[in-house]
Design brief:
alpha+beta; Alpha-Beta Plaits; elongated; 49% helix; SH3 type barrels; single chain; five-stranded antiparallel sheet
């Protein structure tokens, strides 16, 4: 037993020189325990805060997320500093060590670093918040969570998209709910040449005013946009209170326009082409 104990003590006393300090196996184990304790404390604190903050009606989802994220990061940072103190590693020596390492792996970590910095910018500047309806590239969805590396987006089809944070900084992002949730919907329709345009305008406005989701202030409007090849092209402009309702409102108005135009004899044309065939003999 004594020989076994001596071997254990020898293993625990074995050390390596790292970042200007002699780090033993025993110190490394204690530092690992400190990190594990910090991680466990961060999870417990997050759960407690989630229960406490859930009862505060005045807090927005984005404010709750920022408080939870900041608390978790702060506890983990304290644990990391404690682990470094246990290992007796000076930050200056660590910076020099990682400075040499960064030369070799810097190019490979460019994307990770870019996403990390972009995540910090998103959390502090808040151009995108939890609960916002946004469009990034070809993706439209509601923001579920903003992490350090990526952002979780949920589409209308309940598909979860994990988007790197750098895309929010490098690309144009459409935030449909940034300051004002009300948006204007464009419903396009064409009628045959020779149709009564005043009747078309009246029918379209009546349909817009009758829709339960359409706002009456600002008032709906109708514009004659272009003289098309086969039709007079109109745009019905309707304001709605929530951009998430846009697909349903457009669909409802399209169905209503088709039924109303049929009832009043307004023709919705389709493209036509006249072809003349000239024989070679003639």
């Amino acid at each position: 037993m004594e020989r076994f104990a001596e071997r254990i003590r020898a293993v625990l006393a074995w050390s390596v020189h790292f970042a200007g300090a002699d780090v033993s196996v025993a110190d490394a184990l204690v530092a690992a325990l400190a990190l594990a304790a910090a991680y466990a404390l961060a999870r417990v604190a997050r759960r407690v805060l989630e229960r406490r903050l859930g009862s505060h009606v005045n807090l927005t989802p984005n404010a709750r997320f920022l408080i939870l994220r900041s608390t978790t990061v702060a506890i983990l940072c304290v644990g990391a500093v404690a682990a470094l103190n246990i290992l007796q590693i000076r930050l200056t020596g660590l910076a020099v060590t990682f400075g040499f390492l960064s030369v070799g792996i810097g190019f490979g970590l460019q994307n990770i670093t870019s996403n990390f910095v972009s995540g910090i910018i998103l959390l502090f500047e808040r151009p995108v918040r939890v609960g916002d309806l946004i469009t990034v590239g070809d993706s439209l969805g509601r923001v579920e969570a903003i992490g350090i590396r990526s952002t979780l987006l949920r589409t209308a089809d309940n598909v979860e998209l994990i988007i790197p944070n750098s895309q929010f900084i490098e690309q144009t992002v459409t935030n449909w709910t940034y300051r004002d949730k009300s948006v204007r919907v464009h419903v396009l329709v064409g009628v045959a040449y020779g149709s009564d345009t005043q009747l078309v305008v009246r029918l379209l406005l009546d349909l817009a005013r009758a829709h339960p989701l359409a706002l009456q202030e600002p008032e709906p409007a109708v514009q004659l946009t272009t003289f098309g090849e086969s039709s007079l092209d109109f745009a019905l402009l309707v304001w709605i209170p929530d951009p998430a309702q846009r697909p349903d409102v457009v669909s409802d108005l399209n169905f209503a326009i088709d039924a109303t135009f049929r009832e009043h004899g307004v023709e919705i044309p389709f493209p036509q082409r006249d072809m003349r065939v000239i024989s070679a003999d003639s």
